[in-house]
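To whoever is covering the structure queue this week,

Two jobs came back overnight. Logging them here so there's a record in the thread.

Job A:
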Amino acid sequence: MKLTLAPLAFGALSIVVGAAACSSAEDGTPCSGTTCADGGTKTSTKQPTSSKTQDASAPQADSGSPQDSGTPVDSGGKDSGKVDASPPTNSELNPYGVAYPIKGLGKAARKGTTPGSVMANLKFSGYPNGDGSKGLQTISLANFFDPQMKQFKILIIAGTANWCGYCKKEIPEIVSAYTQYQAQKIGVLNPVMEATTGQASTQTDLDIWVKAYKHNFTAALDPAGQNLGSYGLSGYPFNVILDARSMEILAVINGSPSEGMLTRAKTYTSWVDKNLATTY
């Protein structure tokens, strides 16, 4: 089921946002608002200078619903020259030695021309670039902080649950198109949040997920949304888009964008190209 919100201003462009998300309904029945058709409920739980202007509005949040049950079957590198492959020794610094921003911290997403908050420098345990050969490693958002856009313009935090059917569709699409993401300077972090409905993820769940979809980008654990759950989670996939220059929260999207994540991501990179990073 696709839920469509009203058009949102995006500079001179007007777009319609829509998403499909997984809820707590065990049989895949669609949800509307907070109630499922079967009676269940949804899960809840100074920068580069240029001639750019800082007044265009960015796309905002989506919401959505249904789900299926089940976990991926166990089937089952490092990107050459990519600095996020080796997290910095000091997790408060980015790979170039620049400290993560500490002003403007909060949990609000951008609304039109009103800037969003800076997301805190969350820490995860996971596999940089999907490489689990060295075991779990500390991954911080500082790994993706990139004021000069040397590698990243935006970061997509794609929170998933092993039981979520839409997640099982979105993640393979990102894997298959990841070279295009890299070319567009789009970073991706995939925190695995739940195993079965309401059950916190474990390393075993992460291993199954990464092997099933052969991640070529960073995957991590966020058991029961310990990190991300307070940022507006109401369904899966749970996508948060950050401006990598400032780590401003540009959007919180509960569900898969109807036009596909890569198309949506390019909308945000275009916005970054046209607008100065927010200063706090």
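Job B:
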Amino acid sequence: MLCLPEALRLHQFSPLGLVKLCFPPGYIRPSSVSFFAVSLLTSVIVRGINNLSDARYCAGMGADYITFRLDPALPGAVTPALVKELSSWVAGVQLVGEFDSLPIADINALAQECNLHSVLLHKQRRPEELAALSVSALVLVKWIPDMLPEDVDNRFRTLGQHTTGFVMTDLPPQPLTEFQLAHLTEQARTYSIWLAPGFANGSVREFVEKVHPQGLVLEGGDEIKPGLRDFSEMEAVFEELEVE
């Protein structure tokens, strides 16, 4: 007989947005199952939402932000119509649009149309462009292992004057050294930095408790078929972050 966590790895959503659980053969279904937002150890951004399963699951698991790739130049870009449809089914999360090289005027128009709370920029913009944004901006930055600590600090300091935080999803080619980890911890105390779980050499929970980043950034995915999605990897991270 299968245990409940195994049965919960596949979640299915009805057209009404209600959660249905797909219980494998041999599992004795309980009389009722509740699905509600949980408290997490740190804030979570989930990127690249393109389906209702992801949107509702992430909102229910306590994510603070979900992002939509609204720039047509980005792989997996979605339409404003889809963003408005998906966001109508969720509550308690902030909507973020991801943009590459789209002009600021177009970004502002999409932010208004899709009721975005903020944007995540893939490319560095000039200060006057950032000042012209109608919503706050996060910036996607890369981890550069051989970059001098003072150069890293200078980059954060310069960009930090015009943005609300930095998102780092590119993982180091090698596990962080003690020196790198110590400097990353110092940076996290000074700037709002969001990190991918892969920065942790071991336990994600222990990493968060030691480094204290602003939050973690997870990646959304595609449905197996309409309404059906495997959340095994994402669920493992949420479980580590759950407040006991």
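Note for Job B: The two ends are 27 Å apart (CA to CA).

Please reply-all if you pick these up so we don't duplicate work.
Q.
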